[in-house]
Amino acid sequence: MFLPEFVNEKEDGTLECTFWCLNCDKNHVVKKVPRNGYQRWLMNNEFVQNCFPEMDKDERELFISGICPKCWDEMYPAGNPSDTGEENEIEQAPNILPKSILLGDK
């Protein structure tokens, strides 16, 4: 969770959040932040994608890491490091417990 430096309430009831990127130290403004989503994110520590489904991933990333889209792309030129487009293959560990314990035999 990365808190904005400034939060301004707009006439339409939405919020405008200003962030300073931790990498380039430039400010970035996220407009039209829904008040109820912001409160859920801030007070309940809910996931940003649940609180702000209407925002794009770059805007949500500011709330997560405080990194702006340009810096994120420079840091991870191939995209999100966990979003490679390929399924991770997890090798199943061999079962090392005795069959009697696994099956509940007495």
Brief account:
This protein has 106 residues and is an alpha+beta fold.
Descriptive notes:
The protein has helices at residues 35-44, 48-51, 57-64, 69-75, 99-103, and strands spanning 6-9, 15-20, 27-33. It has a domain at 6-75. A hairpin with a 6-residue loop joins strand 2 (15-20) and strand 3. With 106 residues, it is an alpha+beta fold. Helix content is 32%, strand content 16%. The protein has a 3-stranded antiparallel sheet with strand order 1-2-3. It is built from 5 helices and 3 strands. Residues 86-95 have low confidence and may be disordered.
Can you lay out the helices and strands and say which pair or pack?
Blueprint: E1 6-9, E2 15-20, E3 27-33, H1 35-44, H2 48-51, H3 57-64, H4 69-75, H5 99-103
